[in-house]
Write a structure and sequence with these properties.
- By secondary structure, the protein is of the alpha/beta class.
- It has 20 helices and 16 strands.
- Strands 13-12-11-10-14-15-16 form a seven-stranded mixed sheet, sandwiched between helices. It has a five-stranded antiparallel sheet with strand order 5-2-1-8-9, with helices on both faces. It has a four-stranded antiparallel sheet with strand order 6-4-3-7.
- Helix 17 links the parallel strand 14 and strand 15.
- The longest helix has 17 residues.
């Protein structure tokens, strides 16, 4: 889908039930139409389904929506869900009894429902009209239903069901009084439909296909991943690895999301310096604060690790962990990347999101091992990557237990506790994970020792480095860059059997939004879009 206009469409993200369930639904539908001839048959424009979410989205955002949902479905595996129809019920809508098969709210279904909501939320909009629906005949009740599906029909209010038709209320009451034999069923598919009047699934716009690593071009890099996962997950294979030992570790900056023109947590620190300036007027004449206030990126890059740690301590300490989390979340919600003009959380790499989902679908446990601050990364890791906070290893500052106003809190101190980079990454993995991973993914020489240690273990091992060589769609930098420098890794990856990924050649899409923002970026390796912010040529890590 390459629609680039702002037209709103009413969409239904739904489960398509198996054929047995469709036949049972058709049987009930036939009885309903026998009572109410003005009712509708279940067909291509009234497809039986279990709604997961209904929202208004822009037509131009459909590609990004499907990319986000692909990641969810690859992890949650909806076709493996066991669903159960428990009863027949109805609601009065438009003067007739809309009849449904009620589906049991299992924890697995509720989790899928919530993850679909979270995935579509960044693209959801309000203000839809009848024109957003197939046929442009939707009544105000239907429009209002979609407009308020979240929160009125979601979460604790979510009632999964299959709509099977309409009839007169007295007739449906008789059907409801009949004994109902509950039955279990599976999903034949998951899809996005455009809605018709009365919330019918009127037009299929997209259907999920479980193709692993869809944003990866065919080639040696993609094949090396597929081959490794196949070998370690095939029972009877000499390289089979039990699920307990299927651990994969990922660097964050430059590996899972972008890191130019500066590490994103560094940009957060700079914004905090500016925000705190009224409390510290002396910073105007004191380095490295002066460089921040003057936006002198070269001076900052040349300041050295010790001076930059000083910035972190000055802006990250003295508050509780809850206060810090709130400040980070507020910044992530409001700040925008200088080149892409998007929230930083939109700068996650689509191929890596697919890789995370693919590994988890094959029973890997995925961890982040980052030089960035552990509490900074934890604020977004689960929502963006599907990696919960307890699976994040990172740099940390000392925290101290206190009781403030009768309430126990943890207060962040102006002292570095652990710096999780270079040779300390394997130390952090051993300390906080306690198992040696079998796969490691990075992009810079700061990840070298992590890959070296992981791939140096016994049995099947996998190492991968991402080479930022796409100046058109992202940035091009490696040996001389001080942000994400890749020099030793570039030379030694082939010798050590590590996969070296060319962003330019191995990824057909870098960001979920890229075709939306830049229609030219629709080829195998992209097209011409000027860079608005150059990579920083100094290391602040």
């Amino acid at each position: 889908m390459q629609n680039t206009n702002d037209t709103l469409i009413a969409v239904d993200v739904l489960i398509e039930p198996d054929q047995t369930t469709v036949e049972k639904s058709n049987a009930v539908n036939a009885r309903l139409r026998g009572n109410f001839t003005a009712g509708y048959a279940l067909d291509a424009t009234h497809a039986p389904h279990v709604t997961l979410l209904q929202r208004f989205v822009r037509a131009r955002d459909l590609d990004a929506v499907t990319a986000a949902l692909t990641n969810v479905f690859a992890t949650e595996r909806p076709m493996a869900l066991s669903l159960k129809a428990t009863s027949l019920d109805y609601v009065i809508w438009g003067g007739v009894a809309v009849t449904v098969l009620v589906v049991e709210r299992t924890p697995e279904l509720m989790q899928l429902h919530q993850k679909v909501i979270d995935a579509v939320e960044p693209f959801s909009v309000n203000g839809g009209t009848a024109n957003a629906f197939v046929g442009a005949e939707a009544n105000s009740e239907t429009i209002g239903w979609v407009e308020t599906f979240v929160p009125k029909s979601s979460g604790e209010h979510y009632i999964p069901h299959i709509t099977v038709g309409v009839a007169q209320e007295e007739f449906v009451k008789q059907l409801k009084a009949e004994p109902f034999r509950a039955f279990t069923f599976k999903a034949d598919g998951v899809a996005i439909y455009q809605l018709g009047n009365f919330g019918t699934a009127a037009k299929r716009l997209w259907q999920y296909e479980a193709k692993p690593l869809a944003s990866w071009n065919g080639g040696a890099a993609k094949q090396s991943i597929l081959d490794f996962v196949r070998r370690v997950t095939t029972e009877g294979s000499p390289d089979f690895v039990p699920e307990l030992d299927r651990i994969a570790v990922f660097d964050n900056d430059g590996t899972l999301w972008a890191e130019q023109p500066f590490y994103f947590q560094g940009l957060f620190v700079f914004d905090r310096v500016r925000a705190l300036l009224p409390q510290h007027p002396e910073w105007k004449d004191k380095q490295p604060f002066k460089a921040v206030l003057e936006n002198d990126m070269k001076a900052l890059a040349a300041a050295g690790e010790t001076r930059l740690v000083e910035l972190v301590m000055a802006t990250h300490a003295g508050m509780t962990t809850e206060e810090f989390e709130r400040i980070v979340k507020d910044w992530l919600a409001s700040a925008r990347h200088p080149k892409f003009k998007r929230p930083y959380t939109d700068l996650a790499y689509q191929p890596m999101l697919e890789l995370l989902a693919f590994l988890r679908a094959n029973d890997f446990k995925t961890f982040i091992v980052s030089g960035g601050g552990i509490e900074f990364v934890r604020t977004f890791s689960e929502k963006i990557y599907g990696i919960p906070p307890d699976q994040v290893v990172g740099s940390s500052i000392v925290t101290k237990y206190e009781v403030r106003d009768g309430r126990p809190v943890l207060v962040r101190q102006a002292k570095l506790d652990f710096y999780d980079d270079n040779e300390d990454k394997p130390v952090g993995i051993n300390t906080f994970i306690g198992r040696r991973p079998i796969a490691a993914f990075g992009n810079s020489d700061g990840d070298f020792q992590m890959l070296e240690w992981v791939t140096g273990g016994a049995g099947p091992r996998f190492g991968l480095l991402i080479h930022h060589d796409d100046a058109v769609r992202e940035y091009a930098y490696d040996r001389t860059s001080f942000v994400g420098k890749l020099n030793r890794g570039l030379d030694e990856a082939p010798k050590r059997g590590w996969t070296l990924v060319s962003m330019k050649n191995d990824w057909n899409r870098i960001f979920a939004f890229e075709n939306e923002e830049h229609p030219a970026l629709q080829g195998e390796t992209g097209a011409s879009v000027p860079i608005e912010a150059e990579p920083v040529a100094a290391d602040v890590r």
